[in-house]
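The instructor's notes for this session suggest beginning with a concrete chain rather than abstract definitions. Hand out the sequence below and ask the class to guess, before any prediction is shown, which regions might be ordered.
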Amino acid sequence: MFKSSWWGMCVLMAVPLLSACNQSHQNDATQVVAKVDGVEITVHQLNYLMAKLSAEGKTPNKKDVLDDLINQQLLINQAIKNKVDQDPNVLMQVEMSKRQIYSQDSIARIVKGVSAPELADVKKYYEQHAEQFSNRTKYKFHAFLFSNVKNFDSFSADLEKSTTIEQTQKVLADAAVKFDERDIEVSTELLPSEMLAQLTKMKVGDIKVIRTQAGYELDQLMSRQITPLDFAQSIDLIKSKIGAERVREKIDTELKDYRKQAKIEYVDSSATVGK
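After discussion, reveal the predicted structure:
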């Protein structure tokens, strides 16, 4: 028997509901399943959550879900008493959640008519992307991760000369850099084409430097091995790739049309400057 976590539900749903919690309801009495300090919880809310949980493969218990809604409303009522609905940060979260919901609904309507790829499309894709399938390659890297350092340029030349894990460890240690290590394995069928182009140029021992939000990641190539995927093994993955490409193209086309039809004005010029 599924018992939902009302804490998790509260966190996920409280923000969008804050904007509506003080509205008066005109629901028929038969549509109200509970009241919390006069605020009605309707059968529509209950049925919506029951259906959502069922779609996620869970087996919701109606009493448990109703108790979740009641607990949620108790927290919302407390938030209103604390004037959370007047907090600029909360109001912005509500507005951004609304924008997200509206835009996601528009996207769902746009891609509804996107056709699924035929077997001939899949076969053509397989033949045109041999590096991902018939010549699929598995790459193994040893990664070095460390925070931002001011002296990176002072030892970057030594990193370019390194061809082994031990040499890279010594370069970083000599530069007094504290680092973490991990092994990474990637397969070409899962990588974007621009990354594939970079990998094919790398030799064993080469290091790819990646800037991260936290600092740096150095991926040193340890080995590569060709492990082919035959056509039958590739069908489902290729279908998903083609489908994703068609969806992306459809959305891009529609957005271009929307932009042509809309009047767009950049009022604050500083907002158009990338940083």
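Then share the key points. Strands lie at 32-36, 39-42, 137-147, 180-187, 207-211, 215-226. Residues 6-111 form one domain.
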